[in-house]
């Protein structure tokens, strides 16, 4: 399975969905986080993730459900915020003082002048190999409140970077759990 291709396909679908939601709502509209999985029959399935509080609190329940579907690939999709840093030193400094929710507060206070960018993030895992990939598409809104998307980026997650993000860490644990379950069944 080509995980990057799966993510690119879902990036295209998600961009269309976001544009349609903004059009129907006459302006900026956030999409809810979702988990997409490809099942044994190559069918695409979608689960909307509860958005009260921290999404990560709900992911174990969602993944427990997805595990019962025997997925070939799983992709988590969520809107997010990002800040560009210029150097590894700037990143270290930023991470040392960063608290969850800081970017949201800065963005709400200053909007685009904050230097914070809106994006849709995609995290995917190939359940046969455990390989992970991430995709990002940054966007802004035009004067009519319609999204204007930048180019998409999809990259494989190096194994030594798995612990650097909540979702890649969680997917790695999910993969280990699924492999252990399969071993017990055999």
Summarize the entry for a quick read.
The protein has 186 residues and is α+β, with helices and mostly antiparallel strands.
Verbal overview:
With 186 residues, the protein is α+β, with helices and mostly antiparallel strands. Helices cover 40% and strands 28% of the residues. It has a six-stranded antiparallel sheet with strand order 2-1-3-4-5-6. α2 packs parallel to α5. It is globular and about 55 Å long. The model has no long low-confidence stretch (mean pLDDT 89).
End-to-end Cα distance, whole Å, is 23 Å
The succession of helices and strands, N to C, reads HEEHEHHEEEH
| Beta-strand proportion | 25-35%
Largest sheet at a glance? Answer: 6 strands, antiparallel
- Name the shape in a single word: globular
Mean pLDDT: 89
Q: Give the helix proportion (percent range).
A: 25-40%
**Lateral strand order in the biggest sheet:** 2-1-3-4-5-6
Specify the number of helices: 5
Residue stretches low in confidence (pLDDT < 50, at least 5 long) are none
Radius of gyration: 17 Å
- How many E strands? 6
Secondary-structure class: alpha+beta
Core attributes:
186 residues
Element layout with pairings:
Blueprint: H1 3-24, E1 34-38, E2 44-48, H2 55-67, E3 73-83, H3 88-97, H4 102-110, E4 116-126, E5 132-141, E6 147-156, H5 166-185
Antiparallel strand pairs: 1-2, 1-3, 3-4, 4-5, 5-6
Helix pairs in contact: 2-5
């Amino acid at each position: 399975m080509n995980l990057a291709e799966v993510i690119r396909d879902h990036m295209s679908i998600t961009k269309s969905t976001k544009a349609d939601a903004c059009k129907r709502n006459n302006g900026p509209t956030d999409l809810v986080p979702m988990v997409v999985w490809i099942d044994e029959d190559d069918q695409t399935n979608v689960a909307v993730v509860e958005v009260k509080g921290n999404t990560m609190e709900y992911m174990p329940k969602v993944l427990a459900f997805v595990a019962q579907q025997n997925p070939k690939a799983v992709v988590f999709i969520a809107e997010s915020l990002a800040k560009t840093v210029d150097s590894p030193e700037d990143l270290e400094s930023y991470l040392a003082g960063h608290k969850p929710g800081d970017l949201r507060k800065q963005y709400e206070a200053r909007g685009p002048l904050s230097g914070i960018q809106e994006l849709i993030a995609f995290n995917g895992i190939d359940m046969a190999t455990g390989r992970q990939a991430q995709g990002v598409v940054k966007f802004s809104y035009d004067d009519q409140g319609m999204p204007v998307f930048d180019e998409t980026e999809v990259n494989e997650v190096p194994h030594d970077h798995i612990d650097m993000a909540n979702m890649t860490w969680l997917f790695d644990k999910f993969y280990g759990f699924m492999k252990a379950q399969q071993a017990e069944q055999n």
